[in-house]
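Hey team,

Filing this mostly as a record. A colleague (T.K.) asked me to run one chain through the structure pipeline before their review meeting, and I want the input and output archived in the tracker in case anyone asks later how it was produced. No errors, nothing strange. Just documentation.

Input sequence:
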Amino acid sequence: MKFTQFSRTLLITITIFFIAATANSARIKDIANLHGVRTNQLIGYGLVTGLNGTGDDMKKTTFTLQAIYNMMVRNGISIDPKELDGVKIDNIAAVMVTATLPPFSRPGSRIDVLVSSMGDADSLAGGTLLMTPLKGADDNVYAVAQGPLSIGAFSFGGKAAKAQKNHPTVGRISNGAIIENTVPVELGEDGKIVYQLNNADFTTATRMSDSINRIFGKNTAFPNDSGTVIVHIPESNRDNVVSFVSEVESIEILSDSVARVVVNERTGTIVMGKDVKLSTVAVSHGNLSLVVKEYEDVVQPNPLGEGDTVVTRETSLEVVEEEGRLTVLDLPHGVSIGEIASALNAIGATPRDLIAIFQAIKASGSMQGELIIL
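Output structure:
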């Protein structure tokens, strides 16, 4: 048994070294996730108290007033709802509390919560969140949050001036929620685990399956489709699934992806993948500049003469069009990104010009890859 474990570890090390030496590889844990091992979002409605007059305006945010009444009733305080009308309570704010429940969490452990104002509160600085149940999508309570807020901002001022730093109506409570319930996760159910690729790709799924089979034996893993790989747990690892998953996720493989060019017209950003290729294409590029200038022409009478000063608005219009240049981009097979950039820079194209050029090249059918416009 010790020899088998040693041989397996040695084989994993040799395989990882060989793949890393031949290509830019990535670990399985970085490109795929275990099916069923996921986080869950939680949400709750609560009250923040102790504010220094920066809470909700009770005349405008009636839901805050209703929440205060409900809180008093739950704590045994009898009060007529009509008596709350017109009461000024600006030290309280209604908030939404959100958190993320991690997988394999246990009751008693703590998680961070984010607190956001719902009403018209000016600031949550110095406030304390009252006990707030956090529910999941199934409407069950999974955690309870409470504690002082950390804002990292301030907002002070009056009618004439105001000083503000950062965002004062959103705060955070580190370890502010205690987990009361968990989401069960069956790891290795039916003797198998399923990996979901972050970016579905048939080539990557096949390479991942082949790498696992080389280490743990033939037919251990097989790609179910472009996005999932099913891995059967060997008999020797059925009693220690965690160790098996640890070995699998440390395997490094060469991930593949579709050749893409991503452009952002708002910022002029262009990102090209390593597999983007261009066929021979001719590009005509010319810049058109339109300059409009307005100025005032002032005519004054002689120092001793009679008359009025005359102001005339003048407008000049100048159109400059650079000479278009027809450039043939003869790109051989396997050209690099740098060569593509050099060829396009040869025609004097700016990033924003390149966006229009790439769109035209894609429309002409000379680009082997996807063009994504953000």
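Quick notes for T.K.: The first helix runs from residue 2 to 22. The longest strand covers residues 288-299.
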